[in-house]
Amino acid sequence: MKRITSQRRAIEAVFAKHDRPLTVEEILNYGRKSVPSLNIATVYRTLKILTDNGSLVKVFHPSFGTLYERSGKDHHHHFFCRECNRAYELPGCALKVDDAAPDGFVVEDHEVFLLGKCPKCIAA
Ligand SMILES: [Zn+2]
Ligand SMILES: [Zn+2]
Prior knowledge:
Elements lengths: L1 H16 L4 E2 H9 L7 H13 L3 E6 L3 E6 L6 E5 L5 E4 L6 H4 L12 E4 L2 H5 L1
Parallel strand pairs: 4-6
Antiparallel strand pairs: 1-3, 2-3, 4-5
């Protein structure tokens, strides 16, 4: 099982280095830099293990699909760059959610996705 361990380490290292929500493709591409034999099936299997054990959480986006990020963070929002398709983590929450719902509704949680261009793409 040594091989599985090194592949799992490679994926954990990807998240340590890129601290933002990542797509499966990004995880595969970054992980291959240290473990060239990494394949998509292993990535999916490892992501399931790391999600089941609580190390990672899934982020669902209507058009970008499922992304993964490290667990244990405070509530925050995400920014999706329409140019490079990268997802970024935004610090904190500036929403007054109680004012956003009409009378009679109780807000328990929310997800916010901001869309636009990231600084890298604006500079490019
Ligand atoms: Zn961008
Ligand atoms: Zn919020």
